[in-house]
Amino acid sequence: MFEEEVRRHIHFAPAPSWVKELPFARPDLLDQSRAPWGLYTWLVDDQAKLDTRPHRYNRTIEEVVNLSALDYLANVTLPFNPYYDDLTIHHIRILRGNEVIEVDVERRYFVMRRERSFERLVLDGRWTFAITLPDVRVGDIIDTALTLTGDPACFQGEITMPMPLQSGIYWDRRHVRLLVPPERKLNMKPFPLGWIPPKVSKLEDGYSEITFEDSHVHECDYEYDMPGWVIPARGFYASSIDTWERVGDLMRAGFEGDTDYPQGLLDEIAKIETEHSDVRDRIVAAVRWVQENIRYFAFSFGEGGFVPRSLKEIYGDRIGDCKDVSKTIAAMLTKMGVESYPALVDTRRGHDLTNQPPRLGAFNHCISMCYHDGRTYWFEGTSSVAQGGDLDHLAQYDLGYALILKPGTDLIRMMDRPAKLEYEVREVINLPAKKGEQTVIEIDYVYRGARADAVRRDLRYQSLSSYVEDRCALFSYIYGMNMCAIPQMTDNRRLNEITINTHVTTDNPWQGTGGHKIFFSPESGFDYVLEDPEGRRRFPFHLGDVREGRITTVIKSEYQLDWPLKSKTWDFGGLVLGYTGRKTSQGFEAVREYSVRRTWLSPDEKVALDNAYPEVQDYDRLTVAVSGRKPATWLPSFITRAVVWAGVPVIAVGVWAVLTYLL
């Protein structure tokens, strides 16, 4: 779309008659503590007329409190999608004391295509309306009002919108007003932290008016490490859809009915069937073919963010987004006689979808799935590397709930899989007590499942030596000068397991001077799941995928090692840590394990983990401490006396001999 056509979707007009324009007069006092970013928000007003082609009005009034916000407020940018949006600017005003300065927006504005997601290989076709306001000063108030009209045609007139009533900054006043036509039913559900009770009234034209009004709205709490499904603000969902089946019917329309397979794709399917007699192997081969041959790139122009392209376009270009590759996998498996469909998921809030109302904006990603031998398998077609493993060992990502795009669909739980051992370290340390002998450390790093796929992905862009370079740097930091041998790797593609072996030799592995010296084992046991203590917490804590890890340390040494032998377990609900130690004929063996049983900890569980942090750390990195011998303070004086008393007779005899000879 060219700029001239984009400008046809930009209009300038007063606010429509259905909008209730709120009066504004600046109070005499402004609380500076509520403007930490240099701006103060007096009003955020959202109004919507939810017709078949919806109208969404927004008015924002913000004051420039100090210079830190001047550039931000003096440059107005409004992104919109001209493929289905019409943007109407009602006014942009500068309020300076009692003076109202109307900005000539129509003369000063410009449009640009910024494509903010291009680095993530996404072209969404959005344009940005921009204007630099003239002569903005500290103390000025910027009053902006606009309306966006339209929705993608594939929504078929259905409405879906989340509406926050709180944000990360302070709002002096918050106003929301929805006009619902009599023929439309609007389903509303508050966010987990609640909402402002709405006022509902019936207008003369039959529309229902739903109003939310609040003042002195404090900024919401936020914790950077909370799960993506946590919404730390008050607000609500509004949707004209009441079942997930309806969502599936709308979204699967673009996936169904494409039976025009390109000949090249049919040839690839035939080749897979010829090379693999087992259906299980055919499924894996089809998934890998897509991962290896369809390069990720998203052309999300217009409805491209919701509707996939045709099989001919995907195969011909050999590029596609998540919808395209999922459609291709499902089409290939269907042609092979395997029941397969694309499925919609949310990578951030997927585990919480059952607590949300059915709505079109509930998903941000598309994958594929199939049924085989009574089991359900899920496939990530956008993987940048062909996944390892047979069908039983192919990594499957648990994204919570999914909506399979088939008739009569509903949300289903993807999987309730137990934690699997995905990362393992086995370190054997030969720690000699004799001087002059080298310390030899042999370490095996074992990666399984998704961790093995991640290693393969990294090794596409660097050598194995470069991949373990950070480990060698760590060894140099701990042990000083050392020799880190060239690593060796074994890749078991069928079991989806990679083992990397490395040797480290050092002449002086000890830390400390004087009376004590300390040896640190190379690998920590719980670093991968431990975070620094925080104290008070309000929201859950994100742990990542369900998984297990194990670090086994064997020390062979003549030193008397005083390590704890009693097994220890810390159970924090979603996370379990364990330690086991035992003496061996050659020294000592310790095993440290962690098991992430769910993807998050509750606030109470995280506080319990924080309280146990000092104790857990004692078992995290194993140490060998050797006390040096205290110097014998009596020894120097004893030697001196011995020399003196033994030397006096010798000297006397020598003097006598000399004198006798001379005389």
Automatic annotation (TrEMBL):
Name this polypeptide is given: DUF3857 domain-containing protein
Positions of the DUF3857 domain: 56-217
InterPro entries associated with the record: DUF3857, Papain-like_cys_pep_sf
Record has Zinc as a keyword: no
Keywords: Membrane, Transmembrane, Transmembrane helix
Listed Pfam families: DUF3857 (PF12969)
Transmembrane segments: 642-662
Domain of life according to the entry: Bacteria
